Structure formats: structure tokens, C-alpha cells
Amino acid sequence: MSLTPAHVAGVGMIRFGKYPADVTLERMATAAARAALSDAGADLTSIDGLYVGHVFGGPVAGQRIAAQLGLDGKPVSNHENYCASGATAIREAWVALAAGLHDVVLVIGVEKMTDRISGGVRPDPGDLDAAVGYVMAAGHAMSARRYLADHGATREQIAMVAVKNHAHSVGNPYAQYQKPISLEQVLGARQIAEPLGLLDCSPISDGAAAVVLCSPAGLRRLGVTASAPRVLGVGLVSGAARDVLGVEVAGAGLHRAAPVSRPGSCPASAPTRSTWSRCTTASPSPRSSGWRGSGSSRAVSARPGPPPGTPPSAAGCRSTPAAACSPAATRLAPPVRPRSASSPGSCAGPRALVRSTGPGPRWPTARAAP
Amino acid sequence: MTLADPAARPFREGLLCLDPPGLLASRCTTCGAKAFPARTFCPACRAVDGLVEAELSAQGRVYTFTVVRQAPPGVEMPYVLAQIDLPADDLRLMATVVGVAPEDVVIDLPVTLDLVPFGVDADGAPLLGYAFRATPAEEASR
Fold it and tell me: Are B94 and A131 within 8 A, CB to CB?
């Protein structure tokens, strides 16, 4: 079987946060999409199809987005796989490119949670797991508890995940919270689902991210001459009936890590300022510091660097769930500074992994608020 | 628990029997694997023929657990949610653990199936669900 390669021609993202009602799902998606189109140097007429991953957007959210974005009439599909929805949308777009059906597609991962989710995310009411009281945080808590027992790990080691993640957020203009937290803060936070506390859990968030994926022919259509990051693989599995969490929950479409990887990526441990800049593109000199991780071959961007003052991007994460930490090269100032989300919500850890490599996309100028 | 109301019925059909309390599974006559809730295929060998109903052992052990202290509105908290191993059936399932203080729940705690109230149906008739209760020490040691 011969697959047409898929490349990332452009990316866009808005800052995750808790936005007021007038910052709608459609507005957030449109803002992220315009940033990605701009990043790719694509106009609306270059797009063959739109793939939208969301869970709580309601029926045909993708078509509503298309109607605001200017892609109405194009093939639009909606992809719901719970935490893996954005990455599943990427996968389906990748399949279409690989099959030669499309050459330039736009993928959006978007969620408006803060006005419709309270206290946590749970399964469909018809799911037996829901009947026994399952909420997402509880599932991760049970995994953590057993992990501690099986591997002799400590609560502090689990808490270091949150410490590390927050260390990554510092200087990431798209992160919902952009401040470091201490081990003591994580351990002392109020309990959500023991042993996990508030700071171990992901917040309930609003946000959107988008990518333009292209076949080689699509890159030519857009006039992209520099090499663009290539999607090396996308994995998708679902929960099995033999799993404790039945198909209904785990079957929410868990992506697992793609089998192909490259050396050199974000450090798994809590980063120092220098490791953060090594795995991201720190201004003012992205071409000299960004994307390369530690020693990978994805270092050289043939594209122009950002204008002075362009903030660092979140590019280069080892795993990039579409709606959670897509390589982001465009800063979008949020319409308001996000308020603190008061409750943890969705899946505590992204399970949707999409891998790409190669030089990063170019760095566009800042865009207006969504 | 005793079935105070003879009209009480399981909250979902085909899920449990009431006297004595038992969870209803499917068993594959081809490979012997059981599945809960009952399924029309065998998750182990994928057979779709020869599946029969089987009642599961009421004796289990806590494989892992959490104390849920934040949940969507309308849920009484805290509660202990656990994955329970049923060694006799080679099955693991998820259920709440009741009748024990959250701080006393540990991995490998012996537990016994019990019926618990599960609200009422559209006609106001009581419904029953299931949970696991810490097995009294004298029974657990037998």
C-alpha cells in the first residue's frame, strides 16, 4: 500500500481559558483556523475539506464553524472521540490525504466546556460506568493508585507531573495557566479523586487549535517550497470489552503513541528554563533554538523567523494532541483574560497522540482576538 | 440488604439477580470466558454462538480505588469507586465500595456484593443497583 505523505503546512491556536458566553465555539474555532490558514499561506479557496474534532459542540458544530469561517459548501465532518477527538480529526484528515482524496485540508480541535460542564466529565448516562459513579478524574485516580502500588512510585512522583507541566506553561502564551507551581502546592491542593488533587487534574477549558495538512501536491498548491513537518503516523485504538472501563468509556477513542518516533523531544522531567527553550521556539531567535529538541534532526526551519517580539510558541512537544498542545506558532490574544476555572474536568491526560516531525511552520504575526 | 420492597427490581434488565444478590454475566461455552455486563459476543475469542447466562461470584477484592470528592451536581460525595477483581470468574469490574470508611479502604480489601437502592422508576417503584461491601473479617478469613 502506498500512502501519500501528509505535511503540516500551518498551525494556529488561541489561548486556552475560561471565556464568556459571547466567545462561542464557532468564534474560537474560526480564530484558530484563520491563524492556521495565514500560517500556511492558504486562502479559503485552497481548502478541500474541513475536519472538526469536538465533544460538547452539539450536532454539526463543524458546519456551523464552516459557515462562519467561509468554508460552507465544502465537505465538513465532525469527529467525536472524547479526549481524542481533535487527534481523531487529524487522523481522518491524514487518511484522506494518504488515500489521495484531498490535497489541502483544515483540521480544527475545539471545545467550549466552561458553560456546559460542571464538576467533571462523565460517561454517557446510558453507560453502565456512569451508573456506578464513574467520572473521568476517578478513572485516572484509580490508575494512579494501582500504579503506585505496582511500581513502588510515590505520590510525590505523580505530583511532579503537574509540576513539570506547569513549568512548561511558563512562557507558553497559549497555556490556560502560565505560572509555575511547587510540589507542595500540588500535594496540598484539595482532593478531587484520591490520590489526585486539584492541581493533578486538567481544568475545564475553552479553546481551539487548528492545522492545515497537505499532500505534496497540496504544498505546491499553497506555494510552500520549504519542507514542512511530515506526519509520521497516527495511532488509534479503542477500549476493549475486557477492559474494566468498558467500550463505552475507554472506547471513547484512545489514540496511543504512534509507533514511529525520533530521538530528541521534550524532556519528560520537570524542565528548567533552558530545557523549556530547547524544546520550544523561544524568541527572539527561533531558528537557533526551536523545534530541535535535544539532538533531533528536525532542527532547521527554512522558513523566515518571526518578527521581533513574537512570543515563544508551544512547538516541538513530543506528543501533540490536536486540541491540547498543537504546535502553535500564532499568538492570539484572548478577548479577556481567562478566569480561573474552578473545577477540574476532562481527561487528566491526553491519550491522543499525533506525531509529526520536520522543521516547524513559519511564525506569523500576532492576530486579532477571536 | 434485605429486600424490604418486593416490588423493587434491578435498574437495568439482565444485570443482576436479587435473591441471593448476584451479577449476571455471559459465559462463552467455547473458551469459558465470562463478560460483565453480559454481551452477545465473547470478548476473549469473539465467538457469537454458545453464549449462556452465568451468575458471578459475590466475593471480590479491591484491585484499585479512589475516593471521589468532586463530581457533577446531584451526586452525593464522597464515595469510594473501585475496580473489583472476582478471582473465581477471572473478571474485573467497576463498582462503588460501601459500608466502610474511605480511609479504611485498601488495595486487596475483601469485598462482597450487595444490593443498594438506585432511585425509582417512572412509576415511583424502587430500583436496585449493586455495590460491594467490605467483607467481615471472620468471613474473609474463611
Answer: no
| Residues of B (76-115) whose Cβ lies below 8 Å from A | 79, 81-83, 92-96, 102, 107
What is d(CA A10, CA A13) in angstroms, rounded to the nearest whole number? 11
3-state percent breakdown (helix, strand, coil) of chain A, nearest 5 = 30, 15, 55
Smallest Cα distance from A176 to chain B, Å: 21
Asked whether residue B121 is domain-assigned, the answer is: yes
Shortest CA distance to A364 belongs to which of A281, A274, A296? Answer: A281
Residue B58, pLDDT > 90, answer yes
A with B: how many residue pairs have Cβ under 8 Å apart? 96
| Nearest CA distance, A128 vs chain B (angstrom) | 8
Q: What is the ipTM of this complex?
A: 0.94
Residue A314 has pLDDT above 90, yes or no: no
- CATH at A172: 3.40.47.10
Amino acid at A368: A
Band of the pLDDT at B3, cuts 50, 70, 90?
A: low
Is residue A327 within 8 Å of residue A315, measured between CB atoms?
Answer: yes
- The pLDDT tens digits of the residues spanning B73-106 come to 878 889 999 999 999 999 999 999 999 999 999 9
Note down the domain range covering B48: 13-56
Q: B82: which chain A residues are within 8 Å (Cβ-Cβ)?
A: 142
Answer yes or no: do B41 and B73 share one domain: no
Q: How many CB atoms lie within 10 A of CB B22?
A: 17
Question: Could you report the per-residue pLDDT of A60-91, keeping only the tens digit for each?
Answer: 999 999 999 999 999 999 999 999 999 999 99
Catalytic residue at A83? yes
Show the cell assigned to B74: 446531584
pLDDT tens-digit series, residues A85-112 = 999 999 999 999 999 999 999 999 999 9
Task: Return the residue of A nearest to B46 by Cα.
Answer: A241
Q: Which residues of B touch A240 (CB under 8 A)?
A: 43
Are B48 and B62 found together in one domain? Answer: no
